[in-house]
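Backbone shapes recur. Consider a single case.
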Amino acid sequence: MLRLMSIMCFVLWGGVALAQTSNLRSLQTLETGRDWASVGRLIIDYGAGFCTATLIADDLILTAAHCIYDPETGRKYDIAGYEFQAGWRNGRAESYRRIRAAQAHPDYRMTLKTNVERIKNDVALLRLDVPIRNSNIAPVGMAALPDAGQMVGLISYARGRVDAPSLQDTCLVRSRHSGVLVMTCSVDYGASGSPVIIYSNGQPQVVSIVSAMADMNGTLVSLGTSLDDIVPAILPLMAPTSEFSSPTQKRRDIGAKFGRVAPLETE
């Protein structure tokens, strides 16, 4: 049985981390972090908290839908209170942008209860006030949801590691249920919206974003949603139209490869 927990990070960013034991690597240096400058912190509610977000077009970022709502009132946050900090590391970002539009999936319902149906649609797109056109901050393409048993990677900011992104390049997709991935990726508060990554033809592709963490029979797992039909459903609600980065877009190969393992049998 899954006990679900939201993982958007609010004011208290310190403390003991509630997360899975993992092979997380901090990307604190310029050399290790430059390849992931498209992933950054999304500051919300005038700095009261943050989520993780990813640049998928020069003026569009992808994150979890619950990041744009006040959990107490269920209302959207003031658009003026956002800032996207691309490639945030050790007190500075590669690029700073304000947000001029934020749109959740039309079937997403912000309720006090986190459930599988909410996680399934927990995706939002945010339009930047000014496009990021920088060869060092390339938008990331998207790919289909991986199968159970596949190895994936995760880039995230979270409580206890807010000053630099962390890369976990070997976590396992334990199962898929109605468009929701159950993964062994290590997450904590602030990791909402973190991109789940695979490689296709040597290029990183986003296959899911982290929505919640859960206790599965005493083991902490992370939950992510499919992007296949979700993102195309959001985009028409936003104008003007952006062009997504191509899965074959040229980008440096950073070396980590996420392959397949024998599928796991799940209950």
About this structure: The helical segments are 30-33, 116-120, 230-234.
